[in-house]
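Propose amino acids for all 264 sites.
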């Protein structure tokens, strides 16, 4: 069910722990980008726990500088800010956030979903959502992370500007009814505590779950490092969250970044 987001409708569904961690919750009918908004707030010392959602984004952001197409009222668009003592504490955070999203979907009986390294939510080979973490480092060595989530709820069959295969929760789970405000609260109940405890727990606390949800494992894929394509068979992720790829010569290499596509 698509309904308008409201702070007053979200707040009653938040746990006491999440309420204590959230410093501010903003809802915008339309904004350029929820990530942009909090990146700006981070520069003027906004605290951890600032959260914003929007019904529509005019300049939504995806990985590698891409645009995240954000039509009004069809999806979840949200971001939250968390501060860390050092940038090293953020290693693997996007993987942990992905686990959190899958946990929430599983709570609704939606099990035909998985994670595509490093930060996509997938179902049946199609993109359901994505995570974008933007980091700002500060002169004292600390870092601010803005954690953005886009999740497709109910998209038209064709959307101008989307060039890859996509899906939405209405197609993935047609028998499941999600009320936007309750669903957003559930996402916050899972994701905000992950950010709050990540500097202590690190990726190790989420590795096994991430591997359970890995939708690329054992499949042929092409990894683009810059413009260079590297073909191989995905062998999962290592203890640091790096992608392991068995290359054509039989060697297994680990990669920290890149764009992965399913091979035909």
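Proposal:
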């Amino acid at each position: 069910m698509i309904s308008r987001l409201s702070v007053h409708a979200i707040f009653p569904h938040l746990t006491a722990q999440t309420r204590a961690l959230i410093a501010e919750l903003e809802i915008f009918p339309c904004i350029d980008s929820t990530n942009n908004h909090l990146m700006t707030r981070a520069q003027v010392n906004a605290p951890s726990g600032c959260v914003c959602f929007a019904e529509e984004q005019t300049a939504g952001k995806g990985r590698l500088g891409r645009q995240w197409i954000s039509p009004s009222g069809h999806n979840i668009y949200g971001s939250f800010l968390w501060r860390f003592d050092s940038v090293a504490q953020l290693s693997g955070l996007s993987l942990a956030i992905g686990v959190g999203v899958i946990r929430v979907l599983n709570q609704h009986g939606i099990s035909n979903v998985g994670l595509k390294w490093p930060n996509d939510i997938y179902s049946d080979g199609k993109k359901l959502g994505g995570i974008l973490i933007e980091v700002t480092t500060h002169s004292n060595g600390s870092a601010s992370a803005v954690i953005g989530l886009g999740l497709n709820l109910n998209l038209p069959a064709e959307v101008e500007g989307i060039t890859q295969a996509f899906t939405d929760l209405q197609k993935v789970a047609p028998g499941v009814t999600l009320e936007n405000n309750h669903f957003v609260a559930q996402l916050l109940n899972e994701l905000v505590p992950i950010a709050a405890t990540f500097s202590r727990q690190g990726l190790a606390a989420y590795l096994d779950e991430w591997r359970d949800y890995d939708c690329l494992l054992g499949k042929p894929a092409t990894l683009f490092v810059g413009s260079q394509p590297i073909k191989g068979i995905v062998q999962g992720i290592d203890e640091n969250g790096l992608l392991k790829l068995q290359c054509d010569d039989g060697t297994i290499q680990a990669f920290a970044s890149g764009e992965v596509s399913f091979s035909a």
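Helices lie at 7-10, 16-21, 34-43, 93-107, 169-172, 180-201, 207-213. Residues 216-262 form a domain with the SH3 type barrels. fold (CATH 2.30.30.100).
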